[in-house]
Design goal:
binds adenosine-5'-diphosphate; alpha/beta; binds magnesium ion; elongated; about 25% strand; Rossmann fold; 4-stranded antiparallel sheet
Length: about 300
């Protein structure tokens, strides 16, 4: 649905986006993850046709955005950062206006409105003035506006920003369910959001993509991934003494021990070795688990800007 090739955007001397390429397929929810100022919004504004790239090419469902902007943009729903709300209108009035702007009228506008209202849970406030509503509702109104024409592609810039935890949860569920039939690109700096809603994530730092993979792929790059955490009746020292395959250990709180296997050994093999060694040493094992890695460790190691230069 989207092919972005080598996108670059400069503002004077500032390189905001520096050669970003990615694709987005139907059925995918792609997360743009990155610290503030990384270039997420600028990339999204280029992909939605609001900002021309300095260089690079964007295809929307094989339509070149530069030469077929109207047809291409019809396929896209866009929730911008700090989405504007038209506070002097009622919810219904605003959404009807949005439907009209998308070329819908009469019965089809009515159907579109009904669908968006239902998806975004706006029924209770339909006839209320937008200025009288809470931030959460206003946000959902902007969301409803972005999906009013039932676009195949949805581009959402920090769609859960400023929402309370329940609302965040609702919006994530909505993204996830819509992602089954659409292609969705959304940006966030909240890591749990990526795990909760994305099929794939792209990590952006200083205008460049520094990682691209499923949340599981990314987590596996964590230094903790594959380490074993064990909780035992007695210290493991004697049991570990004769055990091969241990690269290093670190003591955690509550007497738990984290054990890192040597490169060549699988975590499962080390678990088997540990259990056998513990039994031999007369140590009871209360709990043993293989760490899957933490997204925030990976995020930090990829995006710490000032002190470390990390490029793939
Ligand atoms: N219109 C603009 N003029 C000048 N600089 C801009 C403009 N828009 C964005 N930038 C700069 O480009 C960089 C990327 O911004 P942005 O895409 O908004 O990042 P993000 O959405 O990841 O927080 C930032 O350094 C920002 O200050
Ligand atoms: Mg932004």
């Amino acid at each position: 649905m989207i092919q972005a090739r080598n996108l670059t955007k400069t503002f004077g001397p500032k390189v905001a986006v520096d050669g970003i390429s990615f694709t987005l397929e139907k059925g995918e929810v792609l997360g743009f993850l990155g610290p503030n100022g990384a270039g997420k919004s600028t990339t999204m504004r280029m992909v939605t046709g609001y900002l021309p790239p300095t260089s690079g090419e964007i295809l929307i469902s094989n339509l070149n955005l530069a030469t077929r902007p109207v047809a291409a943009r019809r396929l896209i729903g866009y929730l911008p950062e700090n989405a504007p709300s038209y506070s002097d209108m009622t919810v219904e009035g605003f959404l009807r206006f949005a439907a009209n702007m998308r070329g819908l009228s009469g019965e089809s506008a009515k159907r579109a409105l009904g669908r968006a209202v239902e998806l975004c849970f706006l029924q209770p406030v339909l006839h209320q003035g937008i200025e009288t509503l809470s931030k959460g509702y206003r946000h959902r109104i902007c969301f409803a506006q972005s999906i009013i024409h039932d676009p195949d592609i949805l581009i959402l810039d920090e769609p859960t920003d400023g929402l309370d935890p329940n609302q965040k949860h609702e919006v994530r569920s909505l993204i996830k369910s819509m992602g089954r039939t659409k292609a969705i690109l959304f940006s966030t700096h909240i890591l749990e959001e990526v795990e909760a809603a994305c099929t794939r994530a792209v990590v952006i730092d200083r205008g460049r993509i520094v990682a691209n993979g499923t949340p599981e792929d990314l987590k596996a790059r964590s230094p903790e991934a594959g380490a074993i955490t064990i909780s035992t009746s007695k210290p493991m020292d004697s049991a570990l003494a004769g055990l091969a395959g241990v690269r290093k250990t670190s003591q955690l709180e509550n007497g738990r021990l984290r054990i890192y296997p040597v490169e060549k050994l699988s975590s499962a093999e080390l678990v088997a070795g540990l259990l056998a060694a513990a039994q031999k040493a007369g140590v009871d094992v209360y709990d043993i688990r293989i760490e899957e890695g933490r997204l925030d460790d990976v995020f930090r190691s990829l995006t710490i800007s000032d002190t470390k230069e990390v490029r793939p």
